[in-house]
Structure formats: structure tokens, C-alpha cells
């Protein structure tokens, strides 16, 4: 694909597939879970310590009393008029600066720092004064001074008054505000989680990753080979078989059926060579290319193809680990290329399938030199003599140039793209690699797709295929397996 086409694609408004976005969001959350946990702990612990260090107990002393007037008026008139006047003026007088100055002189302090509040019961002459302070003794002393000096100040405003106490708290014993540092810590932790979730959302939203097969289709005309769902096996100490391969009975059926579909579509793109050479690669590490290569080899072998799987990633050989076989020291492709062992000694039979594996064991300081050597080309021809299909697991083509060294011997290639992880620019670089190396792209596989999601996974294979390769449709629908090869003659449907 040209740069102009890619820039046009990048400029198009992005349509969000909610299910794919949520799946990618969950993957990102798991990826940054430690960071999320640290942020939650830091904000929760910070809020807890701040609340604990800043906590200052407050004590409240209060008195309720009845205010009376010394004026010679009728009782009913006092109730109806004076009570109303006192109700309006009492809170103002109690909290006024004048009274505070009098109290300060009375207590012989520079200023009254305690909080003084006054309230009145509606339509009565029952009043309450509350004094709050960090010291219980100070709160009570200020309260008593207010009661003592109030009549003197009030006399200038409403005349002479008398206070009759009906309730008194005495010196307060316990603070009115509890130390709730735990609650503050929980609020801080919740805020930290919210911030972390927002940061993960921004991270996922701003990344240009492949979320569905259509995202790759915009970049290339190569065929879509299928979605490969996530396969999980419960690890048990008494179960040795933990490999994610279609030969493992514990692997979900959806994974196996997805590989059958991918094999069927790959088969049609192999060409007419007697023994096609198929490269399986990815743009960056960690996309699952080795898993796809191994399972493709097993799927073709189950169909009676004579298959050779070559581990061509000499820097990071992973085939043996993927299929759960132990490494035989020195018995691999490097030993063969160096002339240390014969090809027959290095080849490993796999189960009861018509599948042989040439592992990438051994050590070398010049893997690129071995791959471009004349001995490598001779080795490929030797492997093709007794095989119907040669699959090579190559290094990521977007990172290393090793895969390009196999360009002259490859008939086609499969590109593995991990859903929600691979960036579109990385896929673009891989496609440019294929174009520069003149390697025909058989198609691409979208790996790591959440099973059963809308548009993804096994439950929707029936409608996701393109053209005649739709699952269950056309000539190459699932279940239309051909008869296996008995020799190295090309047999096509």
C-alpha cells in the first residue's frame, strides 16, 4: 500500500467498535495493573496520612437558658413582643465583636478564637449558646464568660435581661468530630482508581491499534484468513499438557475450529508448487506468530499433508517450547547449517502426525549469515524433497531483517496481527517489507480475539469471511476437507 493511501486511511474518522474497544481496554488495564494498584495505594495512603496528621479534635460546650426582661410589662406582652425582639437580636449580640472583646478581657486573653454560635427556638424565649474549641476547658470557660457578660452587652440594645439556665453540658469530655482517616483513605483510593481508569482510557483511545479485521483490510488487499480467539487452559500441577495447540484436547473447540478455517483459507493461497514454502511472521514480537505456525503445521498434518515446520527465528527459537517438547542440545538447524550434524539427526517427529520439526536450537553469533548462506538454500531444497508443505516460523519482519533473507525461497507468507496490541504503523511496515522482498502475502490472521464477542470469535465465523472463503460457504467452507497427499505431488481441490 502506498504512503498516500495510508495517510488517507489515517485521516479518516475512526469508527469505534465498542466490544473491541472494551477488550483492548481490559488488556491495557491488565498490562498496567501494577501501575493502577500503585496509584490507588499512593492516593489512598496519602489521603489517610493527610487526614490523620491534620486531624484536630473539636470540643463543644453548650448551655440552654430562658431570657427574661426586667421591664415592667405584662407577661403576655413580653411573650408576644419581647421574645420576638430577643429572637432577632440574641444571636447577633452573642456573636458580635463587642461581646467577644468583653469575654477576652474577662478571660485575660488577646482574642477569643473559639467558635461561638447562638440559636433560638422559634416563638419562644428559649435560647442556646454553643462554643467550639480544640480545648475542652477553653470551650467551657468561654461559654461561662459569654453567659456572665451577655446581660451587660444586651442592656445597651434591648434593656436589662436575666438568664435562667435550664441545661448545661459542663466541660465536654469527647470531641464532636471523630478521626475518620479510614474514610478519607477510601475516598482517596477511589479517586486514585478513577484517575487510573481515565488514564487507561486515554491510553487506549489515543493508540492507533488494530481492533478488527477491517482495520487491516484498509491497509492491504491480502485475504483475511480468520480470527483466532484467545485460548486459555487451567493450569494444574498434575496435567502435563499445557500447550495451546489443536492436538491438546483441553484447548477450546472454538480455537480448533478457527484454526481449521485458517488452514482452509491458507491452503487456497499456497500456489501450485509441489512443496510450497510458507513463511509465518508478524510485524513485532509477541503477536503469536509461533502459535499460528505450529497450529497451521498441525492442521495441515491432520489433513494428511507431509509437513515440515522449520524454526527460522534463530535469535529467539520458540517452536519447541510452544509444542511442549524438550530441547535436544545441538540438534537443530544451526548444527545442520554448520555441518555439525545431519539433517536426519536434527529432524524431530511430532506425535503420530505426518509432521517433522526442525528446531532452532544451537548457538551462533551470526544468524543472518547462516540464513543467507548457500547451505540454507540447499537445506530448504532437501526439506522440500520429502514434504508437501514447508512452514517457516520467521523473526518479526518489522523489527529484524532476518525474514527478508528467506524472501527468495518463500512462495507466500502469513502475517499474524494481534488484536488490540499491534499498531497500524507496525502493520504498514510489515506490508512494506513484503513488498520490498517480493514475497506474496497469502493473508493475515487476527490473533487474540475475545471469544464470542460481536464480530469476533467462534460464534460469528459464519458471517465474517470474505468472498468465497466465508466460513461454511462456497468451495472452501469449513468441513469440505480434501483427501490428503500420499506423495509429494501437488493435490489441489
UniProtKB/TrEMBL annotation:
CDD domains: BY-kinase. GO terms for molecular function: non-membrane spanning protein tyrosine kinase activity. The keyword 4Fe-4S does not apply. Pfam families: ParA. Keywords: ATP-binding, Membrane, Nucleotide-binding, Transferase, Transmembrane, Transmembrane helix. InterPro entries: Bact_polysacc_biosynth/exp, P-loop_NTPase, Wzc-like_C, YlxH/NBP35. The chain crosses the membrane at residues 32-51, 181-204. SUPFAM superfamilies: P-loop containing nucleoside triphosphate hydrolases (SSF52540). Its EC number is 2.7.10.2. PANTHER family: CAPSULAR EXOPOLYSACCHARIDE FAMILY, TYROSINE-PROTEIN KINASE. This is Polysaccharide biosynthesis tyrosine autokinase. It comes from Fusicatenibacter saccharivorans. The lineage of its organism: Bacteria, Bacillati, Bacillota, Clostridia, Lachnospirales.
Amino acid at each position: 500500500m502506498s504512503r498516500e493511501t495510508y495517510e488517507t486511511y489515517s485521516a479518516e474518522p475512526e469508527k469505534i467498535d465498542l466490544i473491541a474497544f472494551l477488550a483492548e481496554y481490559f488488556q491495557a488495564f491488565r498490562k498496567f495493573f501494577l501501575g493502577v494498584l500503585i496509584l490507588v495505594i499512593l492516593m489512598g495512603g496519602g489521603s489517610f496520612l493527610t487526614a490523620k496528621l491534620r486531624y484536630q479534635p473539636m470540643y463543644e460546650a453548650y448551655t440552654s437558658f430562658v431570657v427574661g426582661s426586667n421591664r415592667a410589662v405584662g407577661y403576655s406582652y413580653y411573650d408576644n413582643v419581647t421574645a420576638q425582639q430577643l429572637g432577632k437580636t440574641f444571636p447577633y449580640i452573642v456573636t458580635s465583636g463587642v461581646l467577644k472583646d468583653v469575654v477576652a478581657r474577662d478571660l485575660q486573653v488577646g482574642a477569643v478564637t473559639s467558635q461561638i454560635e447562638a440559636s433560638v427556638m422559634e416563638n419562644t424565649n428559649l435560647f442556646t449558646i454553643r462554643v467550639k474549641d480544640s480545648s475542652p476547658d477553653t470551650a467551657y470557660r468561654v461559654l461561662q464568660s459569654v453567659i456572665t457578660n451577655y446581660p451587660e452587652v444586651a442592656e445597651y440594645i434591648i434593656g436589662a435581661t436575666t438568664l435562667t439556665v435550664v441545661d448545661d453540658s459542663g466541660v465536654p469530655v469527647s470531641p464532636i468530630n471523630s478521626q475518620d482517616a479510614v474514610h478519607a483513605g477510601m475516598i482517596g483510593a477511589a479517586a486514585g482508581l478513577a484517575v487510573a481508569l481515565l488514564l487507561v482510557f486515554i491510553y487506549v483511545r489515543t493508540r492507533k491499534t488494530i481492533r478488527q479485521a477491517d482495520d487491516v483490510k484498509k491497509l492491504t488487499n491480502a485475504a483475511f484468513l480468520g480470527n483466532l480467539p484467545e485460548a486459555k487452559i487451567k493450569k494444574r500441577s498434575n496435567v502435563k499438557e499445557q500447550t495451546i495447540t489443536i492436538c491438546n484436547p483441553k484447548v477450546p473447540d472454538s480455537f480448533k475450529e478457527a484454526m481449521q478455517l485458517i488452514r482452509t483459507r491458507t491452503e487456497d493461497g499456497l500456489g501450485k508448487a509441489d512443496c510450497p514454502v510458507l513463511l509465518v511472521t508478524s510485524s513485532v514480537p509477541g503477536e503469536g506468530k509461533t502459535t499460528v505456525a505450529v497450529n497451521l503445521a498441525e492442521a495441515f498434518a491432520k489433513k494428511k499433508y507431509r509437513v515440515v515446520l522449520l524454526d527460522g527465528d534463530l535469535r529467539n527459537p520458540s517452536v519447541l517450547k510452544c509444542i511442549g517438547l524438550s530441547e535436544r542440545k545441538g540438534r537443530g538447524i544451526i548444527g545442520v547449517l554448520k555441518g555439525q550434524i545431519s539433517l536426519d539427526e536434527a529432524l524431530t517427529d511430532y506425535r503420530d502426525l505426518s509432521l517433522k520439526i526442525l528446531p532452532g536450537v544451537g548457538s551462533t553469533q551470526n544468524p543472518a549469515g547462516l540464513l543467507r548462506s548457500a547451505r540454507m538454500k540447499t537445506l530448504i531444497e532437501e526439506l522440500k524433497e520429502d514434504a508437501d508443505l514447508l512452514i517457516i516460523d520467521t523473526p518479526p519482519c518489522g523489527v529484524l531483517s532476518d525474514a527478508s533473507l528467506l524472501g527468495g525461497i518463500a512462495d507466500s507468507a502469513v502475517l499474524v496481527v494481534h488484536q488490540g496490541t499491534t499498531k497500524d504503523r507496525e502493520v504498514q511496515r510489515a506490508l512494506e517489507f513484503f513488498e520490498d522482498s517480493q514475497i506474496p502475502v497469502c493473508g493475515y490472521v487476527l490473533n487474540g480475539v475475545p471469544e464470542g464477542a460481536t464480530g469476533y470469535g467462534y460464534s460469528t465465523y459464519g458471517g465474517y469471511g470474505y468472498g468465497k472463503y466465508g466460513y461454511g460457504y462456497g468451495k472452501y467452507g469449513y468441513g469440505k476437507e480434501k483427501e490428503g497427499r500420499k506423495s509429494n505431488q501437488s493435490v489441489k481441490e
